[in-house]
Structure prediction request, 238 residues.
Amino acid sequence: MTRQYKNIVILTGAGISAESGLSTFRSEDGLWNKHRVEDVATIEAFIRNPDYVHEFYNEMRPELFAAQPNAAHKAITTLQEKYPAQISVVTQNVDTLHEKAGNKNVYHIHGQINQMVCLNCGHVFESWGAFSSEDTCEKCGVTAMLKPNIVFFGEDLLCMNDVDRLLRSCDLFLSVGTSGVVYPAAGFVQIAKMFGADTYEFNMEKTSNNMMFDAHIYGPAGTTLPTFVDKLTAEVKQ
Ligand SMILES: [Zn+2]
Prediction:
């Protein structure tokens, strides 16, 4: 690691939140396991039975509100404070652990649990409260059009213009706690690599044979990422 990086992109997935006690998508004991995806995470389900969908996210919100960031999230804050580069976080997670840890430049491509979006006017606002189909948009005044600002299956990911720009200009790409099998996020490393970035994957175990990564670092991100950040920042001081 002798390069001095100017633009760093850190892609994060469910694995980094799991270390904060948040159950991963479709894990055995998670909230997701009690519901079918097609009942709570599709636009069709939301149109058919909005209150069922609202209740699902209403139930999820307090758990994510209470969750605390771990050493991996904090290592990103340290990197952003000590390393002289533009450092962006692109997360697939809908929790706000990155923000709680003090991370800046966070892009939630799957949306975030503490936001609602009005399907009538596009207004997005933050709230940790509970919602129902009887709520009214504070901007356009239309009722029954507020949807959790979570990307449902079949919907476009958010912030993708920004993310594409970041991937094309980054010289260091880190993938943390993501399986690397779900596109388009799985293809981010390919774009970064094509544009010349060094690429590192942090995961609990080998998850794919993705040869786009220059290095795979195995173990809990709460341990491996702080070590990596220490090395990077030590090189700045020299
Ligand atoms: Zn509205």
